[in-house]
Design the sequence.
């Protein structure tokens, strides 16, 4: 099975200081001719002089009907597309827990990440919570502009400063576990300096591709991805993905990088990723459009990396919402 992919909201490993708070990875499985017809239909409906159409064309109020058609049950991608969403702040929290704490008696990393993500802003206040997210992000970035000691020292100094604000509650217990993990942070940076081209801990593209392959390979099918050009998909990382995505349930056989303008199926994935990112971000921030959120929901991966209960109740598939 050949699946066509694109993303929206990529800031690499800069998840707390970028332009977007949600990363969306979309994939489409359609024959070439129907996809080309769909692109032509969108152009005919929008009638913009732009040579290349992007998601922001569809997101304009005057083109609302075209967006509803694209996502709706009569549209070309219904049952033929998939979106994996990542809330970047939750991704950072989950990664720092995985890196520094891991499993503890009676608590899993995912449980601790949810507790910290949901209770941290209230316990610390907005400014200190943002400082924690930024410092966590810097700790795990493999392309920092400073030497390894700076982000590690800064992170643990910040934890010391935050300790009084969270003493005696669930957030404080998790912060204490992080505080005790300096050896793990030093070990992480030692490994990073030895192999700076390793799979980055903080780029959400890699886990999104893993979940994309899992979705399309259900039932044991082999999957080949045709992906819009992406600097993070180096030959080494593609080889790693192919090696690690092998199982009786399905496997990745190849990744081919193309210019999105060269294939209408990648263009459709580009449209879907862009509108999904905007719809999901609006919902996360309490300004969602109920109709558009409902139209997006059938495409959303149940394994999306999302910690906010209220918005997930609206965005997530029914069975996934029940599980959380």
Sequence:
């Amino acid at each position: 099975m050949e699946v066509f992919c694109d993303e929206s909201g990529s800031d690499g490993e800069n998840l707390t200081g970028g332009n977007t708070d949600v990363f969306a990875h979309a994939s489409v499985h359609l024959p070439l001719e129907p996809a080309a017809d769909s692109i032509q239909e969108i152009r005919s409906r929008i009638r913009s002089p732009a040579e290349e159409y992007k998601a922001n064309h569809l997101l304009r109020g005057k083109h609302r009907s075209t967006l509803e058609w694209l996502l709706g049950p009569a549209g070309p991608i219904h049952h033929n597309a998939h979106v994996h969403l990542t809330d970047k702040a939750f991704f950072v929290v989950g990664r720092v827990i995985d890196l520094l704490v891991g499993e503890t008696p009676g608590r899993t990393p995912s449980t601790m990440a949810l507790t910290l993500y949901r209770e941290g802003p209230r316990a610390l206040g907005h400014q200190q919570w943002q400082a924690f997210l930024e410092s966590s992000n810097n700790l795990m970035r493999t392309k920092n502009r400073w030497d390894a000691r700076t982000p590690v020292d800064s992170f643990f100094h910040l934890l010391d400063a935050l300790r009084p604000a969270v003493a005696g509650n669930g957030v404080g217990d998790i912060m204490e576990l992080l505080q005790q993990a300096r050896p793990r942070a030093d070990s992480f940076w030692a490994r990073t300096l030895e192999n700076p081209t390793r799979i980055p801990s903080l780029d959400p593209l890699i886990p999104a591709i893993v979940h994309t392959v899992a979705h399309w390979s259900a039932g044991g099918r082999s999957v080949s991805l045709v992906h819009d050009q992406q600097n993070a998909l180096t030959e080494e990382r593609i080889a790693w993905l192919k090696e690690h995505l092998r199982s009786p349930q399905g496997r990745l056989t190849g990744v081919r990088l193309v210019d999105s303008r060269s294939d209408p199926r990648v263009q459709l994935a580009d449209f879907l990723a862009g509108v999904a990112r905007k719809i999901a971000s609006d919902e996360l921030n309490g300004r969602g459009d109920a109709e558009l959120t409902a139209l997006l929901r059938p495409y959303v991966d149940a394994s999306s990396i999302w910690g906010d209960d209220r918005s997930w109740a609206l965005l997530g598939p029914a069975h996934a919402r029940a599980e959380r």
Notes: The mean pLDDT is 90. Residues 210 and 245 are 7 Å apart (CA to CA). Residues 264-284 form the longest helix (21 residues).
